[in-house]
Structure formats: structure tokens, C-alpha cells
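This section describes the prediction task in plain terms. A model, or a person checking by hand, is given the sequence of a single protein chain and must write out its three-dimensional structure as a string of C-alpha cells. No templates, partner chains or ligands are provided. The sample shown here is typical of the held-out split.
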Amino acid sequence: MKPNILVVTFFSAVAFTVGCKEEESTSQQIEKVQTESKQAVADMNEYTYARKSEFVEKMQAQLAELNQDIDKLAAKVEKASDQAKAEAQPKLKALREQGAKLELQLVEVKNATESTWDGVKASSRKAYGDFKDGINQARQWISDKIAP
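The expected answer:
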């Protein structure tokens, strides 16, 4: 039961942080997201095969959050100039493709056996980190190219 409380606390803190992002500068947001990302990856290391279902639930929640981040970035892009939209669309498409790959990775996690667990978990960590980094880079690009 204690790990569930930690997960709820973590997501509550993330939700609060997301709600406060409007008041922070982009660099502060990125720094905070990078710190949270590193913590999330570290937390993933603690999951054993016996806690596979918890790992899957956490990853699904994080994936949903990242997809919401992409939607927010896409909304900012829609308010931009036609040139900025044209530049941003391929970046957003690539991020959505990364998200789809992470979803496929989660299927592998669900189907993992005890003998394949460590490898699948490591691949998931990498896919999550890559996706999160891509979103951070897109957030920075949008901040640089498009006024808030």
C-alpha cells in the first residue's frame, strides 16, 4: 500500500507543478521537468518483476502526461505564424511517433517474463527518457520561436 501512496503523491506533485508552469520561465520549467524525469527514471529502477503491474500503471500515467504536454505544445503552435507552424509540425509529428513507440514498449513490458524483465525495463527507461528529452527540446524550441 505504501508504494501506491508514493505514486499518488508523485502524481499530485506533478499535477501541481503543471498547474504552476504558467508563472515560471521556460528555463525553470525545463530544469524542473529534467529533474522530475531523472527522478522518474531512478524510480523505474526500483521495480522488480513482482511489481511489474505497478510499473506498467506508472508508465501509462506518465505516457498520458507526456501526451498532454504534446497537446499543450501543439496548442501553442496553432497560435503561431504560418512559418512557425510549418517548422513545428514535423517536430510534433516526431514526438507523437515517439509516444507511439513508447506505447508499443509498454506492450512489451506487459508481456515480459521474469527472465526478460530487466532488459525490457531498461528499454522502457530509455524510450521514456528519449521521449521526455524530445518534449523538452520541443518546449525550448517553441519558447525560442514562438512568444508565450
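For orientation: The first helix runs from residue 2 to 20.
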